[in-house]
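[Structure tokenization] protein backbone as discrete codes

[Encoding] learned vocabulary of local backbone shapes

[Begin record] amino acids and matching fold tokens:

___
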Amino acid sequence: MRSTDLPRTFLGKKRFLASFDAFFEQGLLVVAEDGSRAVHETFDPTAGPVHHDGDSLYVVVQSAVDGPVTVVVFDAKAPRQLVADLSLVFDGRFEGGRGRIVLEATDDSLRVVVAAEEDDSPRVRVYLDDLLWATSVVVVLS
């Protein structure tokens, strides 16, 4: 799935927040509250595709040498057909939520900020197409 492959019906709905294709040099997508100070000291990429540290997630994706990763963000609910073949790897809330979620690369080459409709600590769900080398990520904020 590439962002250009999304059906137009998804893009016109209120629940769609963002979509982008990006190269992640270090193979990590960070999903965090804006202003997060999480350091992920116990992060081990071999332990699983996601590491949660308070108000931040590390999501393991394929590295830049293997190609781009498509990231799509929805508010409240993602279309069923978009997540039907993906694995839910995180379903929880961030501590001390402010409702502004940042998606970024660990090398500071990318930073996208979205506002969740739920102002305090939105529920965050992350879906991946592959548990080792994800090329498609869907984030749902509700």
In short: The first helix runs from residue 8 to 11. The longest strand covers residues 16-22. The helical segments are 8-11, 80-83. The two ends are 23 Å apart (CA to CA).
